[in-house]
Amino acid sequence: MKVSLFTTCLGELFYVDMLKDVTEVLERLGCDVDVPEGQVCCGQPAYNSGYAEDSKAPAKQMITAFEHSDYIVCPSGSCAAMFHEYPNFFSLDPEWHDKAVAMAKKTYEFTQFIVHVLGVEDVGAEFHAKVTLHTSCHMTRLLGERDSHYKLLSHVKGLELVKLPNNYDCCGFGGTFSVKMAPISEQMVDEKIRHIEETKADVLVGADASCLMNIGGRMRRMGKSVKVMHIAQILNSHQREGESGNVNESGKSTVL
User: Using only C-alpha atoms, what is the Rg of the chain?
Assistant: First the structure.
């Protein structure tokens, strides 16, 4: 199965190792992964800030870049949801509307693709830690994906999954919201961190790098010890039979 990876802005700039984990998991599951040239920002920052017309140019660029892809996989529910918004951009432009619809139909978030397209729930990962999961707003509310990440984590050997209280609450990032409404955003992420600490988890896992950057950055400034990892890092973790592990400073699973 041929899969095109949308690397996302945060992935390319800050989370290159996460992109490697995504690629290795997909390849291990039998996918032929490529990264089409010409991909740019999906246009979400401008769109969410009210500049809908300015979002059309990057949308056209992305539609063209991925036009010949069989499937598009995003390591971000937020970006995947944006691709599904594209048909609305071109409701009065039949040519681009049809292309946007075709793109939306073949676009999936990383865990969504594994569970619902590949039909896999156990990727053979092993990770020994107590973990709690942050579910992003765009993943659940816009993309409508609520279960795939739970299903995949439940099959990771050695992983203890603890439910995060009020997991449906926003972390306070919201792209430009965190800049324009910084005091409110700060209160929201602080509340999220209090709930994370209630779980006594060693690791916070999420499927959106933007949320993880926001929560992780705040926790580092507060001196918290909880590690923050993208779900692809967990799914690409392996430990030998009979050996226990912990999480090191880089967020990688290490064998003791």
Answer: 18
Look up tokens 């490529």; give the residue.
34
3-state secondary structure 210-253: HHHHHHHHHHHHCCCCCEEEEHHHHHCCCCCCCCCEEECCCCCE
Q: Kindly report which listed range (53-62, 103-112, 134-143) carries the lowest average pLDDT score.
A: 134-143
The residues, ordered by sequence, that sit 6+ positions from 224 with a Cβ below 8 Å of its Cβ are 193, 197
| Total residue length of the chain | 256
Q: What is the pLDDT of residues 19-78, one digit of tens each?
A: 999 999 999 999 999 999 999 999 988 888 889 899 999 999 999 999 999 999 999 998
Per-residue model confidence as pLDDT tens digits over 125-137: 999 999 999 998 8
Beta-bridge partners for 254: 246
In the sheet that holds 71-74, the strands lie side by side as 32-34, 2-5, 71-74, 107-109
Token pair 């999420």 in the structure block, residue = 206
Burial of 236 (0-12, 13-18, 19+ CB in 10 A): buried
Q: Where would I find the H helices in 94-181?
A: 94-105, 110-112, 137, 148-154, 177-180
At 51, which helix (H) or strand (E)?
none
pTM for the predicted model, two decimal places: 0.89
* Structure tokens given for 206: 């999420």
Running DSSP on this structure, what letter comes out for residue 164? P
Q: How far is C-alpha 226 from the chain's CA centre?
A: 19
Q: How far apart are CA 232 and CA 123, in angstroms?
A: 11
Distance, in Å, from the CA atom of 41 to the CA atom of 73, rounded to the nearest integer, reads: 15
* 59's tokens: 């949308």
DSSP string, 127-174: EEEEEEEEPPHIIIIIS---SHHHHHHHTSEEEEEEPPTTTTS--S-T
